[in-house]
Amino acid sequence: MTMAQNLNAHSTPLSGVDAPQPAPSKASHDADDRQLTVGRFRRIFMSPEFGSAFAAVVVFAGFAIISPAFASQAGIGNFLDPAATLGIMAVAVALLMIGGEFDLSTGVMTGSTALVTALVTTQLNTNIWFGMAASLVFALAIGFFNGFLVQKTKLPSFIITLGTMFMLWGLNYAVTTNLTKQVTVSGISEYNGFDSAKALFGSSVGGFQVSLIWWIALTIVGIVLLNRTKIGNWIAAVGGNATGALAVGVPVAKVRIGLFMGTAAAAWLVGQLTVVRYSSATVTTGIGAEFNFIIAAVIGGCLLTGGAGSILGASIGALIFGMVQQGMPLAGFPSELFKFFLGAILLVAVFINLYLKKKSQAVGS
């Protein structure tokens, strides 16, 4: 039993001390029987990753049958490209959601960090690595700001980060247009350090963008962090029952602030992948993308109520997102229907997660 499950169990109200203890019922015997018969196959079936992995196979097979080009190397590269940047954010957003919080500023922040790098580099005529370092400090400061306000005010995180999103949105336009008289900052490829930065953030490996490697690496780090470390146990505990977690010594404030700084750092990475690849940054980058990150995490099994979820599932959710986005035009579907299918997939994912949660609670009772 995990720390989160323990906390949930202890948070159940106690009945009267003198109340007679009910005799074991047939239902309780059935529950015990279910516990005894849970095997590896059933645990896999009830895992958050199973539904998303099954959906990914179905989506891939469906598009490959309709359009064989979808399954070619070029076709796979086409859907892995957007899935990689989305997946990087989905890993960080999934950790935050498991910790019981949301961050609506993540989409705009990917554009903000790209703009800070481009503006610092071009306006101060510096090495691009200096611009990236300044951008990272900026991102971590925003993440700390979000986490600190959520912790201190106890307001819902979506309210705090909604305000941050609009502030960043306005700053992106105001600062960029005042300094450059344009909405796009370009030409960073002419500054020192660009070649080495491109090797790390803008190159391709075996026909695939280097962002794919970043995505895989961060997914592995996220899985290990959540499932193999004390910090991962703390994250699930805070998301499941923050009051109980604080009572048993979990540093709730540090965990929350750290999770918001983690999403900010992921947004910085996506911003650098974008600005180096295209050698430019624009004020509209990332607007509205925060909902895509949350959708990918939910498709992958993250509960909107916090306390449970899967990093691997969130990455698979990003993969499904990329396949649907690139597969629909190849299959001849109108691009306007993409949002419709995205909403439908989200609803199906929520229903499946709810079903699996009830089955899991039934087995564990």
Could you characterize the architecture of this molecule?
This protein has 365 residues and is an all-alpha fold. The protein is built from 16 helices and four strands. It has a two-stranded antiparallel ribbon. Strands 2-3 form a two-stranded antiparallel ribbon. The longest helix is centred in the last third of the chain and has 27 residues, at 252-278.
Spell out the key features of this protein.
single chain; 365 residues; mainly alpha; two-stranded antiparallel sheet; 16 helices; 74% helix
Strands in their spatial order, largest beta sheet: 1-4
Number of helices: 16
- Please give the alpha-carbon distance between the first and last residues: 12 Å
Backbone CA Rg: 23 Å
Q: What does the average pLDDT come to?
A: 86
Strand content of the residues, in percent?
Answer: under 5%
Principal-axes shape call: globular
Order of helices and strands: HHHHHHHHEHEEHHHHEHHH
The share of residues in helices is over 70%
Quaternary state of this entry equals single chain
* Biggest sheet details: 2 strands, antiparallel
Give the beta-strand count.
4
Estimated structural class: mainly alpha
